[in-house]
């Protein structure tokens, strides 16, 4: 997977060197090419040093860090008639192969430069920036499955796939680009416009039978779109409901599915993962790690996720190992079950809210979590996979599925304040798909606990006389020394 950088000068000054600095921080050992473009000129080289020697000057620049995933992927930016484009990620279309940036460029041309159509017409995981005379036009997919950040100071307004590229050029205050929006970026900064976003309108009454039929159809379609054209695919596997459903449907879509399970040593959940994989009749690759491995990988995880949040770090560590293993095994695409807990009420904290605040409050909280799952989980995991040049595809993070799930009444997700299983309607879908009962009826167990990672980070922090938050914050500061 590649990365995006874009910058607009507020003082009409040349920003080519600054854009090159952003690309330098975004590249890694898997980078194959680097591209830089003004609204009229595109240059693609194999190093930032070569880019800097080229005669390209402009107060408006877009850049791209290229790593091939699909055989059709090509280095960018892409030259259009009177503008240039960087498009990163995938739009997913029914009954078609997976498309790329060139496809987006063709669609943009067909729509006479109407960038809103890229968001309105396509589900997917993507972000893009168009460079025109005097301005940038940026956009992000409707759920925020692909990461994009923005920020500005007195001299510059800029966007990037990672916060560190903005920090490096002196923009300390960064924000997640709102999903389903476009932004006009010029000497005045950012002007946002919603194009395709989730809007809370309350829930609608529907039967369990209707809901299960719709969810099954939408999830099958989403998985099929995300494995289209693939001969083989990895699945981040826990043995739980969500990853098992994704793996089962990917197998039904005739992909060669391989399950990857990671854990620290001597964790009891390993045996369950083996039983679940055997029941699904899919190959399982188990990777077991030590305490030393946790301490060694934490700086890398913090570098990628770009924050010292203890929960995100404890989740991000096993995701890092999973993506690393997928890459080592030669997989370029990995599926995962992220998003299901937000869509269908999987988190235990919803029960506490139910008791304290009632049904209506929980329904609003569920919608808020669906709308914010890009900040909660998706950005973190996408950046981790991108680091390993593995493309993360999330069947539950599909706009139509999220929109339908958001409309469901609470009782189809959480039957009562005492519902320890939760995700009622999703479990019924899994039963109808004939998944084994020991998978369908298994209580949710968070990855940071089943792998033992959360406990291990606490132990490492205690050795330093710190809380987890203090321990990780110091490590983050050291990792980003001189940048934050």
Describe the structure.
The structure is a single chain. By secondary structure, this protein is of the alpha+beta class. The chain folds into 2 domains: 3-194, Glutamine Phosphoribosylpyrophosphate, subunit 1, domain 1 (4-Layer Sandwich); 208-470, Rossmann fold, CATH 3.40.50.620. The chain is built from 20 helices and 18 strands. The protein has a 7-stranded antiparallel sheet with strand order 3-2-4-1-10-9-11. Strands 5-6-7-8-12-13 form a 6-stranded antiparallel sheet. Helix 6 (208-227) packs across helix 16. It starts with a strand and ends in a 5-residue tail after the last helix.
Residue fraction in strands: 15-25%
Total strands: 18
Sheet with most strands: 7 strands, antiparallel
The CATH class of the largest domain is: Alpha Beta
Using the alpha-carbon principal axes, give the shape. globular
Poorly predicted ranges (pLDDT <50, ≥5 residues)?
A: none
The overall number of domains is 2
CATH homologous superfamily placement of the largest domain: HUPs
Instruction: State the end-to-end CA separation.
Output: 25 Å
Spatial strand order of the main sheet: 3-2-4-1-10-9-11
Can you count the helices? 20
Radius of gyration: 22 Å
Category by helix and strand content: alpha+beta
The helix content, as a percent range, equals 40-55%
CATH architecture heading of the largest domain: 3-Layer(aba) Sandwich
Mean pLDDT: 94
CATH topology description of the largest domain: Rossmann fold
Question: Which helices and strands, and how do they pair?
Answer:
Layout: E1 3-9, H1 16-26, E2 33-37, E3 42-45, H2 48-52, E4 60-66, E5 78-79, E6 84-92, H3 101-110, H4 116-120, E7 123-132, E8 135-140, E9 149-152, E10 156-160, H5 163-168, E11 175-176, E12 181-186, E13 189-194, H6 208-227, E14 232-236, H7 241-252, E15 256-264, H8 269-280, E16 284-289, H9 291-305, H10 310-328, E17 333-335, H11 340-344, H12 349-357, H13 359-371, H14 373-387, E18 391-393, H15 399-407, H16 424-432, H17 437-440, H18 447-450, H19 453-463, H20 468-479
Parallel strand pairs: 14-15, 14-17, 15-16, 17-18
Antiparallel strand pairs: 1-4, 1-10, 2-3, 2-4, 5-6, 6-7, 7-8, 8-12, 9-10, 9-11, 12-13
Helix pairs in contact: 6-15, 6-16, 9-10, 9-20, 10-14, 12-13, 19-20
